[in-house]
Amino acid sequence: MTDTRPLPEEPGYGYGYGHAPAPGPRYAEPAAPPVAPAVRRRRDGSGTRRTALVIHTVADVAAAFLGLWILLYLLQANHANVFVGFVEDVADALSWWSRDIFTMDTENLRVLLNYGLPAVLYLAVGHGIALRLRRF
Q1: Residue 89's pLDDT is what?
Q2: Which of 29, 68, 110, 132 has its CA 20 to 30 A from that of 59?
């Protein structure tokens, strides 16, 4: 015959006289996994700060391209160069609305004003919007 008594490592089931089995099921059911607390959205304005940073950065990059084109033009950079052509194309795209506001005989002054005005406006408007968003 085989021994059908429970093994000693099972809790509540000891060998010997007078030991009663533990109440409840012989094998405990696994406990439910802990429930994570609900994820709450942070209300510290981090989304508006990120948006302000993006606007601030875009304005800075636009002004940098315009300033770089003014510098390359005033220093008489080679227009056949690929980099100079790229900077000129980007500056033309950024200043399409102000390209011929100032018409004067001095070509250097014309380029300085026609590309410098949008650079200053991009900086002023971009930084102003970013500052306004950060105050929320």
Answers
A1: 95
A2: 110
Task: Kindly give, in sequence order, each residue whose CB lies less than 8 Å from that of residue 118, ignoring residues fewer than 6 positions away.
Answer: 62, 66, 94, 95, 97, 98
Q: Fill in the amino acid letter for 110.
A: R
Segment 98-126, tens digit of pLDDT: 878 888 888 899 999 999 999 999 999 99
What is the distance between the alpha carbons of residues 120 and 128, in angstroms, rounded to a whole number?
Answer: 12
Q: Which two tokens stand for residue 8?
A: 């000693």
Tokens at 122, concatenated? 């991009």
Where does residue 12 fall: left (phi above 0), alpha (psi -120 to 50 degrees), or beta otherwise?
left
Model confidence pLDDT, tens digit, residues 14-27 = 555 555 555 555 65
Q: How far apart, in whole angstroms, are the C-alpha atoms of residue 78 and residue 32? A: 73
Q: How many CB atoms lie within 10 A of CB 99?
A: 13
Nearest to 88 by CA among 56, 115, 118: 115
pTM over 0.70: no
Q: Distance between CA atoms of 8 and 5, rounded to whole angstroms?
A: 9
